[in-house]
Amino acid sequence: MHNALLSAETLGMGTVQVFTKNQQQWNFKPLDPSAVEQWRLHCDRLKFNITISHDSYLINLASPEEALRRKSIDLFVEELRRCAVLKIPYLVTHPGAHMGEGEEAGLKRIAAALDEVHAIVPAEGVTTCLEITAGQGSSLGYKLEHLAEIISRVKDPDRLAVCFDTAHLFAAGYDFRGRKYKQFMRDVETTVGIGRVKVWHLNDSKKELGSRVDRHEHIGRGTIGIEGFKPIMRDPAFVNVPKILETAKAKDDAGRDWDAVNLEVLKGLM
């Protein structure tokens, strides 16, 4: 994992988001002590005090199927424990999918699952960030109200925060471009609260506003456009909030690393 830190250093970035295990598999090996040592060593050297992990895409805390629910809870427990060992303060998770049982039932299941997880794993400096989703299929979390309800239902809401993905927000129907940003932030404040937004994923979108389809595009090259990112980059409320690129890892036509290109565009908006 420390290679992500080295790549961030080369690109001039100030943080990273990593998977602490293969995100497409249930099985996992224990963290290698040498991997933990290298991760901590380079985090300390680079002064990366705020790093992020994203949990496995297989986890579904809203599942009505008991076997999948149990596997999801067990794996989420492991994800939190790995973050604690690595001293990663934020674990980003997609809330889950109700799989036909309905949104209200799904939201109740997520809160109950998180309560069960919290009873097993002490806080240990790790905060779970519920990520806004595009709302594909039966996915929950495509409304700010969904995230607010989960937070209000859990027994220990201080262990939860929010991650905003710009592509997901846009696909879910939230327009934060240009002058519409102020109204969007008012909606944020009356639901989850601005102070609870601890991570941003900055991605343009290949799909239109309200499409409910999650397809990432390079910054300024999609349907959100530059005007959608300018107010975020200039908002004093988010100066110290980590911002992660989840755009395609490749090179542009000029042979430049797309991460470098996207970073340059975002820094130019500050």
Question: How is this structure best described in words?
Answer:
With 270 residues, the protein is an alpha/beta fold. The protein has one domain: TIM Barrel (Alpha-Beta Barrel). The chain contains nine helices and nine strands. The strands form two sheets. A seven-stranded parallel β-sheet has the order 1-2-3-4-5-6-9. Strands 7-8 form a two-stranded antiparallel ribbon. Helix 2 links the parallel strand 1 and strand 2. The mean pLDDT is 97.
Give me the secondary-structure topology.
Elements: H1 2-11, E1 17-18, H2 33-46, E2 52-54, H3 66-86, E3 90-93, H4 103-120, E4 127-131, H5 144-153, E5 160-165, H6 166-172, H7 181-191, E6 197-202, E7 204-205, E8 216-217, H8 230-234, E9 243-245, H9 258-267
Parallel strand pairs: 1-2, 2-3, 3-4, 4-5, 5-6, 6-9
Antiparallel strand pairs: 7-8
List the strand order in the largest sheet. 1-2-3-4-5-6-9
Alpha carbon gap, first and last residue = 29 Å
Percentage of β-strand residues: 5-15%
Question: What's the main sheet like?
Answer: 7 strands, parallel
Parts with pLDDT < 50 across at least 5 consecutive residues: none
Question: What's the helical proportion of residues?
Answer: 25-40%
Overall morphology: globular
Tell me the domain tally.
1
Radius of gyration: 18 Å
Backbone structural class: alpha/beta
Q: Which superfamily, in CATH terms, is the homologous superfamily? A: Divalent-metal-dependent TIM barrel enzymes
CATH topology: TIM Barrel
The helix count comes to 9
Oligomer: single chain
Quantity of strands, as a count = 9
What is the arithmetic mean of pLDDT? 97
* CATH architectural type: Alpha-Beta Barrel
